[in-house]
Design a protein that fits this description.
This protein is of the alpha/beta class. The chain is built from 15 helices and 23 strands. The structure holds nicotinamide-adenine-dinucleotide. Keywords: Oxidoreductase.
Length: about 500
């Protein structure tokens, strides 16, 4: 057990209790010895926990534990694995308030956002409990006769899971749920900003009956060393990564050395299209969700607003009124709708993008609120006249900033919306759903919300095209990512 007092995520997070947390390896909570790092609440800088800083040796031990647990777990009946996942879903649901408090504490997101994330995260466990007993197979006759074709699926092996801080619960269960349902064992490397949610999930899964070694968690401030050690381990056959395109590209090259199976959920630059006949109130409601959920720190966040020129002024006026009415604050303020960004560097980066756009001729058209000084807050900004070569348009903003561009010709709209190497989410609002679907189909995006500002759905395939990723999570595709087909050619 740990070398110091371990708090519980069931307790409120206060400055009084600083948790001390070690890696979860082979069913044990590791003692907190040697190097450690602190986890802070981004709303006010409060230190929440001291966490053991994992290294390559920890990663190797965790992969060893996952390798030892793999055979028995893969051989466990799919129904038995499913029952455990269902129990974990039930525990998450029972404890949603406590888990949401933990997510808010380390990520900063408002309580309503955190509650939404826990509900979404839990659903991956239920969905994959259901999918785990429905893995498809094929039995057939070879067209030339004389042989039978039998195809079944088996788990790919030990999986290294790497997750970001922006949805610390959902990005973890979106991988753990299908991995475990498929019969894989895992080593999760959470983001250093948000390891506490990962620990809470691993503990909850153990309580639900997940055997020792099936889910291991190694936090670190040196992700390169830890993930390198995981990828070098002979039992690790899968890398499932969610994070930035730059890191994803690097890890793909690294995993290529041993031809490891990779799933990549990377960055986005979502176009949000408003057509001339759109219901503008619906478009504004969708824009608020698509832009400001998690203060704009979502891979699916609307990045570029393309509004038809005939409704651009009206849409902007209504959007600005709605944005400026949203209160900022820490998650324990129940009225807060906008939380802090994850850290000071994030605030500086987004502010630099705003300043550069303004220097190039853009106008801030809303009244950004004054922000609390003790956290990493940035008020939402809405801009017009943003040059299309500004970083606010070409890059993933990852903050509460909305550049509004206009369009007139549908072909020109599609060309501009697709003029990016990223292609994760997109959004189209139009009165005529036929034309909305036509625009949606023309977008080079893995997912498009049609008259909706939210695409995330455990039952649907989540993922991007171009440099937004490889493969899909969620839906029936999500479990196939942790399975490999085996084909038997059987002589008649
Ligand atoms: P990031 O790429 O910096 O970090 C993601 C994870 O990778 C973290 O666990 C981090 O510790 C780890 N990491 C960083 N450098 C590494 C290295 N050299 N080797 C191995 N691991 C390394 O991204 P972030 O800032 O945490 O998250 C924001 C990004 O994630 C955005 O681009 C966002 O769009 C993307 N994202 C994508 C999805 C999706 O489903 N497509 C979902 C959420 C976030």
């Amino acid at each position: 057990m740990s070398g110091g007092p371990r708090g519980s995520y069931r307790e409120p997070m206060t400055t009084v209790d600083i948790l001390r947390e070690g890696a979860r390896i082979g069913g044990a909570v590791e003692p907190v010895t040697g190097a450690r790092f602190v986890v802070e609440n981004p709303a006010d800088g409060t230190v929440l926990a001291e966490v053991h800083d994992g290294d390559a040796a920890d990663a190797t031990r965790a992969a060893d534990a996952a390798a030892a647990a793999f055979g028995p777990w893969a051989a466990t009946a799919p129904r038995a694995r499913a029952e455990i996942l269902l129990r974990a879903f039930q525990l998450m649901t029972e404890r949603h308030a406590e888990l949401a408090r933990l997510v808010s504490a380390e990520n900063g997101k408002p309580r309503a956002d955190a509650l939404g994330e826990i509900a979404y995260a839990a659903e991956f466990l239920r969905w994959y409990a259901e999918e785990g007993v429905r893995v498809p197979g094929v039995a057939g006759v070879a067209p030339a006769g004389g042989a039978r074709i039998e195809v079944t699926h088996r788990p790919v092996g030990v999986a290294a899971l790497v997750t970001p801080w922006n949805f610390p619960a959902a990005m973890a269960t979106r991988k753990i749920g299908p991995a475990l349902a498929a019969g894989c064992t895992v080593v999760l490397k959470p983001a250093a900003e948000t390891p506490l949610t990962a620990f809470a999930l691993a503990d909850l899964m153990a309580e639900a009956g997940v055997p020792a070694g099936v889910v291991n968690v190694v936090p670190t401030t040196d992700p390169g060393a830890v993930v390198d050690a995981l990828l070098a381990h002979p039992a690790v056959r899968k890398l499932s990564f969610t994070g930035s395109t730059a890191v994803g590209r690097h890890l793909l090259a690294r995993a290529g050395q041993r031809v490891q199976n990779c799933s990549m959920e990377l960055g986005g630059n979502a176009p949000f299209v408003v057509c001339a006949d759109a219901d503008l109130d619906a478009a504004v409601a969708g824009a608020l969700v698509a832009k400001l959920r998690n203060s704009g720190q979502a891979c699916t966040a609307a990045n570029r607003f393309f509004v038809h020129e005939t409704v651009a002024d009206e849409f902007t006026a209504r959007f600005v009124a709605a944005v400026d009415a949203l209160p900022l604050g820490p998650a324990d303020d129940p009225t807060a709708a906008i939380g802090p960004l994850i850290g000071p560097r994030a605030v500086q980066r987004v502010q630099r993008c705003i300043d550069a756009a303004v220097a190039a001729g853009a106008r801030v058209v809303n009244q950004p609120a004054a922000v609390p000084t003790d956290g990493h807050f940035l008020a939402p900004h809405v801009l017009r006249d943003v040059p299309e070569d500004a970083a606010l348009v070409t890059d993933e903003i990852f903050g509460p900033v909305a550049p509004i561009l206009t369009w007139a010709d549908p072909d020109d709209l599609v060309a501009r919306a697709n003029a990016t190497e990223l292609g994760l989410a997109g959004y189209v609002f139009a009165g005529d759903t036929g034309s909305a679907r036509r625009v949606a189909r023309a977008l080079d995006c893995g997912m498009v919300g049609v008259n909706r500002g939210l695409v995330s759905e455990p039952a649907a395939p989540f993922g991007g095209v171009k440099q937004s990723g490889l493969g899909r999570e969620g839906g029936t595709d999500g479990i196939l990512a942790f399975l490999e087909a085996q084909y038997l050619s059987v002589q008649e």
